[in-house]
Amino acid sequence: MTPPTPEEDAAAFEEWRPLLFGIAYRMLGSAVDAEDIVQEAAIRWLGRRERTVESVRAYLVTIVTRLGMDLLTSARMQRVSYVGPWLPEPVVSDETSAAEQADSLSLAFLVLLEELTPPERAAYLLHDIFGYRFDDVAQSMDRTPASCRQLASRARQRIAGRRQRFDADLQQGRILTRQFLTACATGDLEGLLRLLSDDVVVWTDGGGKVRAAVRPVTGSRRSSRFLLNVAKKVRGRAEETTLNGRPGLVFIDQGQVVTALSLDLLDGRIVGVRVVSNPDKLGRLSADLVPR
Asked: Does residue 70 carry a pLDDT above 90?
């Protein structure tokens, strides 16, 4: 068999880049770190010694999985000292596939994954989310199929009771998002209360770099007053977008996204509001959404 040319190797890698980023991002909750891992995988792929590979996908997924577990171990230590609630870095979703991605891409789901160990997270994602057989998962993780099955089962049990299914209708979600934005912008307390569920929770992630609540705000009354107060201080113009498969808003000021907001909707009401203002988590959104 003739070894592939560098051009063929590069083309083969690009074919699987979206999959590799999807795995790395869900493992880490960081688009920046996921991009770094994908880039490292490209370097290792192009510089590998074995010139022929039976399965390009399996080879690349193995690299990304092991790099992701290594980086996740150190990232978890850093998040212990994180100031205030930690939220994943939001990413723009392709609207054509947003509904099918929403359950495994939502910020709420990615936060739940934080409770898993790196091996549990890898086994669960590869099998339950990406549909890999346990034999393939075992190869990627350098473990036995039985061990990977046990890891995924343990992960499933740990998050099953807390995983929520949210409304997937983006059109209806956009209507609620516009109503939410209008109520906040005009200081309409009663209008905002009508949109929020009684047990709504608001999380704000400033990472200690931007002022934000250090604890989640719960309940419709407290949350509505808190959101109206925050709305008075938010800079920039608001733009609708789809963040992690959910209706979202970004606020753009001087060519940069300064705040990203994602809504969790259930039965036509807002049950969760996640606000990211940590500038370290908004660079990719700026690159994707702000014309240069």
From this structure: yes
